[in-house]
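Handoff note, outgoing to incoming analyst
You'll be picking up this chain. Sequence as last confirmed:
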Amino acid sequence: MAADRPSPQHQPPSGLDALTVEAVGRLTEALETTERARGQLYAFHQLTGQADFQLGDAVELLRRAGHDQIAARLADELVGRNVLDGRWSFQVLEEYDDGYWSAFRRLEQEVRDQLTDGRRHLHEAQLKEQRRSHGEPGHTARPQ
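Most recent structure output, in case you need it:
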């Protein structure tokens, strides 16, 4: 029954060996990990920006409380400071996105295009076939 088989885009092209499917799956898994790292980098960016604005609020409160020297030192040395040499966090993100992340995505796509006809998650589709209980509710190969 066709509905109880993976969809064609989740079946390996004819003649594709299991080791290649696994290798491409591992490459895609590495890309997924990179996507998670990128998300953490965005969290870092947003949290750093939030901290800088909170710091600005603290500086203003210290000034209002009469602690001008402390407030001035914090304002001069820390408010708006680069997180890395010459870079705010948005610049770190841009460099990461334009360099490593973009290259990783491009190369992963090229490998899939070359080896799996661009098909995604073939390894996971095979795992699903191995692990699901065929014929049981909630275990269909694909949506009806």
